[in-house]
Amino acid sequence: MASRGSFASKFGVLMATVGSAVGLGNIWRFPYQMADNGGDAFLLMYVICVFFMGVPAMMAEFIIGRHTHRNAVGAFESLAPKTSWTGVGYLGVFTGFIIDCYYCVVTGWTLYYLYKSVTGSLLGGTMDSYAQMFSAFAADTWLPIILLIVVVIITCGILVMGVQKGIENVSKVLLPMLFVTLIILAVNSCLMPGALDGLKFMFVPSKSNVTLFTFLDAAGQAFFSLSIGMGALITYSSYFDDNINITKTATQIAVIDLLVAVVSSLIIFPAVFTFGAEPEQGPGLVFKVLPSVFTQMKIGWLWSVMFYLLLFIAALTSFLSITEVVVAYASETFNLKRLTSSIIIGAIFVVIGSVTSLSFGPLKDVTLFDMTIFELMDYLASNILLPVGGVLISVFVGWRLDRKVVASQLKVESPKQYKLLSVYIFFLRYIVPVTVGGVFASQFFS
Ligand code: PHE
């Protein structure tokens, strides 16, 4: 079997795992969800979901990963051999595959916008011309495909370098850069004339349109944003060594992920309100609206380069973690070198990713359940596969895994800590499954 790597430092572990969590989900999905769900009420529910459901589920993945030091499938094979629990591992690899095939398309888009920002050709248009530009670009046959190939090559290149030299070193440099850029952009946005309207939009509920679905949306967003439910965190934590405190790391990641989501909203909404754009644009917000915002800003060129670089970095480090689930599984199961498995998997992503990308152009009329290929992949992964995976992983640790393993991974020793352990197990057994079950059911009844 190919030898396994491990992360070298606590800081590296934190940055790599935060790199997985912080992604497109934080920068465009969170602000959009918040806009649709009544501002600060959504924020409050999101915070509750992150800490009461997200953190326990994240810890469950860490417990499995670090205890077994195996990939997502291998972990279940060693803990529950010859049972259908291994299916949870396969489900994770499959989910990773599905997410990767559209995540590489969107990451490619960020590269295009970064390129246009660097060359200065992005600025100078109008709101309408940017909307047209985005639609024409996404519908193009070759350009998005070429860009997704570039993304896959960069990602596989980093993964081939291995866990420590690749994932850890890249995350240690890129992530802090990302935080600094975010803060500078947020301060800049909050100094704009329309900042107050933007802040009101975010934090003051305009009407009390809070329903059970608001809560369920918040829960779904928490799972996606924290990378829970497909074994990405099982795989990363299989490279943790013994001195990593699982509870502390999970809490730190949750806090950072939450802050990035809020700060991203602080960049977007004040700017959008200052320039009179419509906030409810979903995935298009970042690509259609922000260029005209940058056009009207002083030194807009610099802000646009920083923003799209940041979006690219965030997407890339998440993409890395999703791909690592598949690469680790393939190299360890079929005894392949990381180079070989990365090339094979990269090639498959390029093929399926290209078909996904074409669903904005030549294949836009190919639909199933009224969704294009791209929409279907996104829906399947985030609305079905991740919630199901998250529940199964929590249920496994809560009901099936030997309590001694959980106690030793969480370094539970004193009687007081044992009491807290029972509370934790209660969350895994009941709170997470019931809440996520609700998220899942809401897809069918809403
Ligand atoms: N958390 C990532 C984001 O917010 C997406 C992701 C989902 C990454 C699942 C890994 C696993 O963009």
Characterise the protein shown here.
This protein has 446 residues and is mostly helical. Helices cover 78% and strands 1% of the residues. The protein is built from 18 helices and two strands. It has helices at 10-21, 24-36, 40-68, 72-79, 86-118, 127-139, 143-160, 163-190, 195-203, 212-225, 232-237, 246-274, 284-296, 300-333, 338-358, 373-400, 403-409, 415-445; strands spanning 367-368, 371-372. Strands 1-2 form a two-stranded antiparallel sheet. A hairpin with a 2-residue loop joins β1 and β2 (371-372). The longest helix has 34 residues, at 300-333. It is globular, with a radius of gyration of 21 Å. It starts with 9 loop residues before the first helix and ends with a helix. The mean pLDDT is 86.
What is the beta-strand fraction?
under 5%
Order of helices and strands: HHHHHHHHHHHHHHHEEHHH
Helical content (DSSP H or I, runs of 4+): over 70%
Strand segment tally? 2
What ions, cofactors and ligands are bound? phenylalanine
Outline, from the CA principal axes?
globular
Rg estimate, integer Å? 21 Å
Query: Strand arrangement, largest sheet?
Result: 1-2
**Unreliable parts:** none
* Helical/strand content category: mainly alpha
How far apart lie the N and C ends? 47 Å
How many helical stretches?
18
Mean pLDDT: 86
Major beta-sheet overview: 2 strands, antiparallel
